[in-house]
Transcription termination/antitermination protein NusA
Amino acid sequence: MQKILSIIESMAHEKNLSVESALEAFKEALINTAKRLEGEEGEYEVEIDHDTQSYHIYKVLTVVNNDDPRAQEEPEKYITVDEAKSYDEEIEPGDKIRSEIHLEEYGRTAAANLFQELEYHIQRRIEQDLFDKYKAKVGSIIIGTVSRVDDAGNTYVEIGELKGILSQRNRIKGESFKTGDTLKALLRFVSIDPKYGMHLELTRTAPKFLEELMKREVPEIQDGAVEIISSARIPGERAKVALKSDRPDIDPIGAAVGQRGVRINAVSEELCGENIDCIEYSPIPEIYVTRALSPAIVQNVRIENNNTAEQKAIVDITSDQKAKAIGKSGINIRLASMLTKYQIELNEVEGIVERAPSGTEEKTKDLSALENLFK
C-alpha cells in the first residue's frame, strides 16, 4: 500500500478536492479501519511521511498506576506501569505507549475495509466543501437554468454542482418558468434533507433580493457611496427602499433611479413590474416616517415610546391625503411601517391640501404643523 498516497492525490485532483482535505479523509479512513480490525474502543494515531510517501498507524495506550481500575475496565486504552515496563523500564504513569499496526497483515479484509472507508470519507469531504462554498454565498444572487417545474409549482434549477429549489411561496405572484429558462434568485440557505439531498433554497420575494438587484444596477451602491438602510416589499406589487449617502456630491435617490429611470426600471422589470419607491433616509424618526408615507403629504408626526419592542408613530393627516397614505388595500402604510419599523397610526385633522396650478408646489391652509417649531 506504499503507493496509496499518490492515488489519494490523484483522487483529490479528479474530484476537485484539495489534497489536504483528501489526506484528512485518508487519515479518518485508516483510523476507522484500524478500529474495525483491532477494537472500536482503542485510541489510534496516523502519521504520514510525505518524503517517503508512506504512512504509519499506531495504537496508543496510556500508562496508569497498578491499582487504577481503568486498566481493567478499558484495557484497549490503558495499561498498568508493571505491564508497560516490558516496553520501557523508565516509563511512568501518564506516558503513552505506541504500537504500530500493519494493515497488510490482515490481507484483503483490511484492503476492502480501507477502500470502503476511504470512499465514504472522500464523499463527505466533497459534500462539506460544497456546503462551505455555497454557505458563503447565502444572501447573494444565484443564476441557474430551470430543469423542471413540478405539479406543486416548485421550480428546480441547475446551479453548478448542486440543484436549487424555488418553491411556489418564494416565487413572485403571477410569474411562471419553463424548462430551459435562465432564473435569477437570492440564495436563502443551503439545506440537506433525505428527499433532495444537499440543495439550495432560493427566493425571489425577500427584500434582500431587491437590495442585491439594486447593488448590481447602481455602481454607487456597489462601491459604498450610497447605502441601503432598509427595504420593504409586497412582492410583485410595490416596494420602498430607504437610501443615504455621506457624500455631499451624491444624490442617493438620483443615483438609484438613474438617468430617465433606467436603473430602477431594470430592477422593476426583473421583479415583474414591481413599483419601487426610493426615499432618502433620515436619522430623525419624524422625518423618516414622513418620507416613508409619500406620496401622501402629512401634517405632523409624533413618536410614542411605550417601552415596548414596537414603537408607534402618530401621524396627523388631512382627509384628502388619508387615502394616499393608506394606499390601495393598505399597501402604502404597510410598506411605510415595514420600512421604518414603526407602527403607524393615522390621525385625521382638519384642513385640505390644495393642488396648486401646474408647475407649483402643493400648499396647505392648515398651519398647525408649524406649532411645534415655536415651543
Remarks:
- The CA atoms of residues 188 and 202 lie 5 Å apart.
- The chain has twelve helices and 17 strands.
- Residues 141-203 form a domain with the OB fold (Dihydrolipoamide Acetyltransferase, E2P) fold (CATH 2.40.50.140).
